[in-house]
Amino acid sequence: MKANRKKLMLAMARACMDTEDLQKAAEMPRPTLNNAICGKSVRPSTIGKIAKALKVDVTDIIED
């Protein structure tokens, strides 16, 4: 599962979070978060944790 970088960055901006804030809120290692931000394939649970931390639906941040 891949995150859409633009959608993810917009969700981060709406939540007033930078990558450090998101990493802490999602409780995941920095390299894992960076992989998601860069558009690399990550596990569905990773995308779920990111969406939960940003308080958005998963469909709002994944690739179409």
From TrEMBL:
Classification via InterPro entries: Cro/C1-type_HTH, Lambda_DNA-bd_dom_sf
HTH cro/C1-type domain mapped to chain residues: 20-61
Pfam family, one: HTH_26
Regions crossing the membrane: none
PROSITE patterns: HTH_CROC1 (PS50943)
Full protein name: Helix-turn-helix domain-containing protein
Species in which this protein is naturally found: Faecalicatena fissicatena
